[in-house]
Amino acid sequence: MKILVTGGAGFIGSHVVDKLIQQQCRVVVVDNLSSGLREHVNTAAKLIEMDIGSPELLALFEQEKFDYVIHQAAQTTVAQSIDRPDRDCQVNIAGSVNLLEACRKTAVRRIVFASTAAAYGNAADIPIPESAPKQPTSFYGLSKWTVEQYLALYRQIFGLEYIVLRCANVYGERQGNSGEGGVISIFSKKLHERRPVTIFGDGGQSRDFIYVGDVAAANCLALTAKTCNAAFNISTGTETSLNTLVKLLEQAAGIKLKKYFAQPREGDIYRSSLDNTAAGKYLSWQPQMPLSQGLGRTYQALKQPGLNQREGREW
Ligand code: UD2
């Protein structure tokens, strides 16, 4: 089968591509390389440098005739969505609708969409079930939730099949570690450089950290899962506070981190963990990577840049 992975040069997308290639799929990547890297794209995949919002996207779909689409391309950070809601909307909403148009006009069989825990906002019940109210506290959460609703309506009106994967905090090799990166990649880099970290808030805020290889596996399973037109949480189902994360990172590296505390970040949620029962039942998916081990791998990959490359990974 022929699969398009949007954002396939990015952090999660490039791991998805690797897994699909391992499964002998034919893979095309569409990525504008705004944050993704050409060298992260598996050489067995075809890379098209294009924006998902491009008017040329439809012609590409007509030419390639994709069976399935895995949609990972996005503006991915909460903080940037607060700085530039207009840009977040343009990429995450308008770009996705452009992609959906190409999907329905060329009879794509199914689209798998990367959504987020941020769609829930501050939920009452932890771990959060899929049915919890969607009350995003950031434009990023809002834009992802909006696309989920577009998918439901595209299904209803045009018959396009979909699966939404609401991912918790994804970490692992190849994650960016600049201001746009996740807390694990940022702290790992600081640790490696023996520089202090800044904790926004009291460090008591929790996240559900899920390894990128586990997320890639969930995407592959979602392509052919019998149950579709539904959303599934992809997570470990456990909460880890930032203070605990710092301790685990220190253990993984054998180095002490110096910490500064600053004001909580605008739009941040305090507690986050997602119930993953439904993904177990309907996708036959379970997280495999223990956090301490995943942190070790992430840190080692930073120390040995070769491990960040596709060829160096064992996952
Ligand atoms: C992450 C994802 C987002 C979405 C969401 C789902 C990233 C960059 N963003 O947003 O795409 O999937 O999870 O819930 O992965 N923090 C510090 N110091 C730092 C950096 C972060 O204290 O230097 C804090 C931050 O204020 C927050 C926590 O660490 O309380 C996690 O921050 P993050 O940027 O890694 O991820 P989050 O949850 O905002």
First-last Cα distance: 23 Å
Q: From the 3D coordinates, which CATH architecture would you assign? A: 3-Layer(aba) Sandwich
Q: Would you tell me which CATH topology applies?
A: Rossmann fold
Q: Give me the strand/helix succession.
A: EHEEHEHHEHEEHEEEHEEHEHH
Strand order of the largest sheet: 3-2-1-4-5-6-11
Fourth-tier CATH superfamily name: NAD(P)-binding Rossmann-like Domain
The biggest beta sheet reads: 7 strands, parallel
Which hetero ligands occur in this complex?
uridine-diphosphate-N-acetylgalactosamine
Overview of this protein structure:
The chain is of the alpha/beta class and 315 residues long. The chain has one domain (2-308): Rossmann fold (3-Layer(aba) Sandwich), CATH 3.40.50. The chain is 38% helix and 18% strand. The chain contains ten helices and 13 strands. The chain has helices at residues 11-22, 57-64, 78-83, 85-105, 139-158, 183-192, 212-224, 242-253, 277-282, 291-303, and strands spanning 2-6, 26-31, 46-49, 68-71, 110-116, 161-167, 169-171, 197-200, 206-207, 209-211, 230-234, 240-241, 259-262. The strands form four sheets. Strands 3-2-1-4-5-6-11 form a seven-stranded parallel beta sheet, sandwiched between helices. Strand 5 (110-116), helix 5 and strand 6 (161-167) form a beta-alpha-beta unit. Helix 6 packs across helix 8 (242-253) and helix 6 packs across helix 10. 46% of the residues are buried.
